[in-house]
Amino acid sequence: MTPGFRRPPAGFFEADVLTLARALIGAKLVHDAAGTVRSGIVVETEAYSETEPASHAYRGRTDRNWPMFEDGGMVYVYLVYGLHHCFNISAGPRGRGEAVLVRALQPLEGLDLMSQARKGRPVGDLCRGPGNLCRAMGITTDHNGADLRSGPLRVLVPEHPVPASMIAASRRIGITSARELEWRFYLRGSPWVSASRS
DNA sequence: CGTAAGATGAAG
DNA sequence: TTCATCTTACGG
Length: 198
Description:
The chain is mainly beta. It is 11% helix and 31% strand. The chain contains 3 helices and 9 strands. It has helices spanning 17-23, 111-117, 130-137, and strands at 5-6, 28-33, 36-49, 75-80, 84-90, 98-109, 153-158, 167-170, 184-187. Strands 1, 2, 3, 4, 5, 6, 7, 8 and 9 form a 9-stranded antiparallel sheet that branches. The chain is globular. The structure holds a DNA duplex.
């Protein structure tokens, strides 16, 4: 266990999705695979809920989105545009369709592996954007339905919480509905966050 | 069934 | 701005 980080307290992932999306900023995402370790600090997230139309959960549970409806802390990974994976963390209690999309990480460990997976892109781009981060971290649909508290993917929270004043909110990126909601959160001033689209 | 659109990324 | 690439979800 890395100094400065600890296992999340009980109930951490059962919080409502907006609370969790904020609480994940500054947390550490770790992937252990085949004796290798990759990790990074979460610097950008987005909340998605069954209550708004931009969410996969808006029209109820399906074969794809079912992890969103499971207990908080379950991994939801899906493929977008037939090319890129997106990594989400289920929030809230079982039966409620909510998840946090992780959009960017500050790379911490396993930079060599990440760089290899990302074809030698600059460090600043390794984990910038949801698809890029999955590629760098080696996250695929194989991880769909995994438990973040017991599997090869883990989340650790900082011992000293990120001050609320360091977390900024904005509109979500790349969606066509519910544009007005400011459900994207990022570490203020971080150079690792993804760029906005039009 | 057929098909349109998608929580993106990279190149031109 | 365009295109790669393919699954999902929805309509017929």
